[in-house]
Write a structure and sequence with these properties.
Blueprint: E1 7-9, H1 14-23, E2 28-30, H2 36-41, E3 49-52, E4 62-64, E5 68-72, H3 77-82, H4 84-89, H5 91-98, H6 103-108, H7 111-117, H8 124-130, E6 134-139, E7 142-147, H9 148-151, E8 152-154, E9 157-158, E10 165-172, E11 176-183, E12 192-203, E13 206-215, E14 222-223, H10 225-231, H11 238-245, H12 262-280
Parallel strand pairs: 1-3, 2-3
Antiparallel strand pairs: 4-5, 5-10, 6-7, 6-10, 8-9, 11-12, 12-13, 13-14
Helix pairs in contact: 5-8, 10-11, 11-12
């Protein structure tokens, strides 16, 4: 199926992109197009105008900014996965990027685009939740910094305003992180039936802080707060991990779909939370 007719503009600067969005109701931003174009072809989304930010310079970099990494809006999944900086300081995000889609998608789609699309079964949203990343947007009134925990509002819905561009993702350094999932075609390919990212920080054998992000299970990528609370203060042993993982879906509306019942997906959530915690804790 072909998309409905639309106008197209390729601004050279962020200011021009924001202006185009502000002046054109129904306009949508395109970076890699891996999420937007399929929706348009199925006519589930018919924007009046496509604002292609692919020609704006300076948005395709991963920068070391001291205590955090900055991942630009045009950084491809493959670049996030392969970046030595990301692999060292945010291995959970690198792993999630490496498991996003297929080779073609990873080489065309962007990390920021995946976060802006906010699919309920995407990989990298879980990682940015666990890593307590901050998403930076630019609109007519300047820039906003939005914590990842406040970014994902509902199914395919974020805090991004219609006249804003997601400019970069700021990822704090420190701690250890990991990501694991079951893909819809088995193994690690395709969207997650259930997946989890874990971030932990410990000292003298005790877990001092922890966060877990969950994907594929509920109505949106979710921070599994009670898992983090349950593992903090423990020695991070297998028993402690199992007990914490039991809280994987506390407060989460688990969705039954073509890939599993509520009970099955809740079970998978516990399994993959445990695996992510085990990997982050070096087990």
């Amino acid at each position: 199926m072909y998309p409905r007719k639309f106008d197209y503009t390729a601004p050279a600067t962020l200011d021009e992109a924001v202006s185009a969005l502000a002046s054109t109701p129904g306009a949508k931003v395109m970076a890699g197009g891996m999420s937007l174009l399929p929706l348009m072809k199925m006519r589930l989304l018919s924007p009046s105008t496509i604002v292609d930010i692919g020609r704006i310079s300076g948005l395709d970099q991963i920068e070391d900014r001291g205590d955090q990494l900055a991942i630009g809006a045009l950084v491809r999944h493959a670049d996030t996965a392969a970046s030595p900086l990301v692999r060292e300081h945010a291995p959970g995000l690198a792993a999630a990027a490496a498991l996003t889609g297929d080779v073609q998608v990873r080489n065309r789609g962007t990390t920021a685009g995946s976060l802006a699309h906010a699919d309920i079964a995407a990989d990298q949203p879980a990682a940015v939740l666990a890593l307590a990343a901050t998403l930076v947007t630019q609109g007519p009134n300047g820039r906003r910094e939005i914590p990842a925990a406040e970014w994902f509002v509902d199914t395919l819905t974020t805090s991004l305003h219609a006249d804003e561009v997601l400019v970069e993702v700021l990822v704090p350094k420190g701690g250890a992180s990991a990501y694991d999932k079951l893909g819809r075609r088995g193994g690690h390919s395709d969207y997650a039936v259930a997946g989890a990212a874990a971030w932990v920080q410990r000292s003298n054998g005790t877990v001092e802080a922890a966060r877990v992000g969950l994907t594929g299970v509920g109505t949106k990528p979710t921070l599994a707060s009670e898992v983090g609370e349950a593992i903090v203060g423990t020695d991070g042993s297998a028993g402690a991990i199992e007990a914490a993982a039991a809280h994987a879906t506390d407060g989460v509306t688990v969705l039954e779909d073509l890939y599993g019942t509520e009970e099955y997906k809740a079970h998978l959530a516990q399994v993959y939370v445990a695996r992510a915690l085990t990997a982050a804790l070096g087990g």
